[in-house]
Design brief:
This protein folds into two domains: 83 residues, no CATH class; 68 residues, no CATH class. By secondary structure, the protein is α+β, with helices and mostly antiparallel strands. The longest helix is centred in the middle third of the chain and has 9 residues. The strands form two sheets. The chain has a four-stranded mixed beta sheet with strand order 3-4-5-6. A two-stranded antiparallel sheet has the order 1-2. It is built from five helices and six strands. The structure holds iron/sulfur cluster. Iron/sulfur cluster binds next to loops.
């Protein structure tokens, strides 16, 4: 692991401009290019292949959110929300920690609590939180996202006890 000193918020280049979240570069067969990433241990160059091989969740944060963190007065604490650490190479967080597979009744629809359904409609996020329990999904082309809303609607129709459905990629 790198031991280089951590940069201050003023030293950090724009997170947006250094994001590896380049969809076109993720296309199979395309040559990966090197990118500069602001790991907590300091900036360093990695390749998209290196990130993929280690199951590292995409790195992206909106300019607004990034600025909010820098201006918060708690930069050293809050930066951990969005900035990847090299420790993720050792523990990428790919497990289904809340057992979502077990509660999936049709692809993309979970039915854990009688009254509530959870519909996963996207595997993209505006910011890829480093603590995310859905790292196995976010930023990937996941087969856990609802591919067939008619099938989902059919299940809901057959379960009148379900009176609300949360749509999104979050649990809450
Ligand atoms: S699913 Fe939620 S916790 Fe995970 S990256 Fe997206 S916003 Fe963050």
């Amino acid at each position: 692991m790198s031991t280089s000193p951590r940069p201050s918020s003023q030293e950090l280049p724009s997170t947006q401009s250094t994001s590896p979240n380049d969809v076109s570069a993720n296309t199979p067969g395309k040559k990966s290019h090197s990118i500069l990433m602001n790991f907590l241990e300091g900036s360093r160059v990695v390749t998209l292949d290196e990130l993929r091989e280690n199951d590292i969740t995409r790195y992206q944060v909106t300019k607004f959110y990034n600025q909010q963190i820098k201006d918060s007065g708690y930069y050293e604490q809050l930066k951990y929300i969005v900035e990847p650490s090299t420790q993720e190479f050792e523990s990428p967080g790919s497990l289904d920690t809340s057992g979502e597979h077990n509660n999936t009744v049709v692809p993309g629809l979970q039915h854990k609590y009688a009254q509530t359904g959870l519909l996963l409609v996207t595997d993209r996020c505006a910011s890829y939180c480093r603590y995310c329990f859905r790292k196995r999904i976010v930023g990937n082309d996941s087969d856990e996202i609802a591919p067939d809303y008619a099938q989902v609607a059919g299940y809901i129709r057959q379960h009148p006890e379900m009176n609300n459905v949360l749509a999104g990629i979050r649990l809450s």
